[in-house]
Amino acid sequence: MTAEVLIFGAGAVGAFYGSLIAKTGTPISVICRSNYSAVKSAGFTITSPQYGTFNWSPTRVFSSADAARAANVHWSYIVVTTKALPDVSDDSALLEGLVGEGTAVVLIQNGIGVEEPYYTRFPAAYVLSAVTIVSASQPAHGKISHNRWTRINIGPYLPSSSSPSSSSSSSSSLTQREKDAISKTDEFTDLLISGGVKDAQAYTHQKLQQVRWHKLAINASMNPSSVLSNGSTNASMSLDPELSIHLKGVMEEILHTAPKILGAPFPPEFATSERILRSTQKNDSGSRPSMWGDWEGGRPMELEVILGNPIRIAREKGYEMPRMQTLYALLKMAQRNRDTARSGGSSKL
Ligand SMILES: NC(=O)c1ccc[n+]([C@@H]2O[C@H](COP(=O)([O-])OP(=O)(O)OC[C@H]3O[C@@H](n4cnc5c(N)ncnc54)[C@H](OP(=O)(O)O)[C@@H]3O)[C@@H](O)[C@H]2O)c1
Ligand SMILES: *[C@@H]1O[C@H](CO)[C@@H](O)[C@H](O)[C@H]1NC(C)=O
Ligand SMILES: *[C@@H]1O[C@H](CO)[C@@H](O)[C@H](O)[C@H]1NC(C)=O
Ligand SMILES: *[C@@H]1O[C@H](CO)[C@@H](O)[C@H](O)[C@H]1NC(C)=O
Ligand SMILES: *[C@@H]1O[C@H](CO)[C@@H](O)[C@H](O)[C@H]1NC(C)=O
Ligand SMILES: CC(=O)N[C@H]1CO[C@H](CO)[C@@H](O)[C@@H]1O
């Protein structure tokens, strides 16, 4: 049986990976929103230094989850590539009726705690958690610009597994369901590799969560600090004597707390805060974190998955991350003030 894949939120990341999996001949359908009419009539055009310029017309283009439900397809994979904004909407609710028996929900999103709403809502489905370092954007309707990097790591989300760190090769203590989740992870990874994503790699639950927290050290330090310093570039922040101390402080806070939460030290090959800082200092490309773009564009920032959830998860275990807490409190209020000013001063918050 051919896998049917549905991409929910076909923006930069969703359309990029969807267009590559499509090269395997697998039918790929998409749910769009603001860019629906452009994609419906002309598909996507992807430009990439690695894959060249090509057009991709998805098998089906839906304007909403309701429209997708009406099509009555059994989806093998539903790939979620919306921005993770749990304070704005619970996107898992929109997938009711689309997630069937044995469907794997693949979350390609940033941040911490993105899996839980799907895992809780769909006990009969599999949840796969993916982290990517791709750099992609959608400068115009249906036009996807891939800038660099493709790497994506995927792991089964098995928070209550008796042996979360075991790999597929030493899986004797796993339940059948957990083994199936691991097979689904391997299958999806193979689809990506067959589509040309050579550095797609399957990880265990434990290692994938380690990757999420490690990546958080970069996002949670650079992104909020750029917004609060009015759009500083990564390089300028990491070269400033005081700001670089601050960035390192935030990274250290996360890199020290995460191993206590996850119950294992980071693998030795994961970069230290010094190494991250040094490579940022050398990279004077003038680039800014995407959170700055969201702030400037008046869009909601991924504050909860980058700051709020990690703070709360740590706090439940008895750990405080005070630098993170300060960034969170300040940015949340800044966002509220921005939105209140825009809506004419009558915020209900
Ligand atoms: N871009 C990157 O280079 C990059 C790299 C690493 C990780 N990430 C992460 O990947 C995730 C996706 O980022 P992205 O850059 O691809 O964002 P994006 O370009 O904004 O794509 C998200 C898409 O989802 C659509 N959408 C949101 N809610 C929807 C709904 N209810 N129904 C239908 N469509 C909906 C949006 O439509 P609208 O246009 O209407 O909003 C948009 O097209 C984020 O968690 C991000 O942090 C991105
Ligand atoms: C700047 O930092 C953000 C991390 O939040 C990242 O998304 C972006 O790729 C970085 N740019 C460079 C050139 O390192
Ligand atoms: C932030 O920077 C912009 C230029 O990028 C400038 O126009 C604006 O006045 C600055 N805002 C503050 C509060 O400094
Ligand atoms: C710095 O930028 C160069 C070229 O844009 C890229 O190859 C390199 O991976 C970047 N390094 C980091 C740490 O962002
Ligand atoms: C987080 O950082 C990565 C690079 O490390 C970048 O690709 C991603 O877009 C960043 N996320 C946000 C929300 O800025
Ligand atoms: C999510 C996304 O990238 N939407 C884009 C749709 O197209 C308009 C302009 O054509 C862009 O401004 C949006 O950013």
TrEMBL record:
Protein name in the entry: 2-dehydropantoate 2-reductase
Function comment: Catalyzes the NADPH-dependent reduction of ketopantoate into pantoic acid.
Any one biological process term the GO annotation gives: pantothenate biosynthetic process
Enzyme Commission number(s) of this protein: 1.1.1.169
Span of domain Ketopantoate reductase C-terminal: 208-334
Domain of life: Eukaryota
Database matches in Gene3D superfamilies: N-(1-d-carboxylethyl)-l-norvaline Dehydrogenase, domain 2, NAD(P)-binding Rossmann-like Domain
CC annotations in GO: cytoplasm
GO MF annotations, alphabetized: 2-dehydropantoate 2-reductase activity
Chain intervals with Low complexity compositional bias: 159-173
Residue span of region Disordered: 159-180
PANTHER family recorded: 2-DEHYDROPANTOATE 2-REDUCTASE, PROBABLE 2-DEHYDROPANTOATE 2-REDUCTASE
Enzyme superclass (EC): oxidoreductase
Pfam families according to UniProt: ApbA (PF02558), ApbA_C (PF08546)
Catalytic activity: (R)-pantoate + NADP(+) = 2-dehydropantoate + NADPH + H(+)
Family designation: Belongs to the ketopantoate reductase family.
Residue ranges constituting the Ketopantoate reductase N-terminal domain according to the UniProt record: 5-157
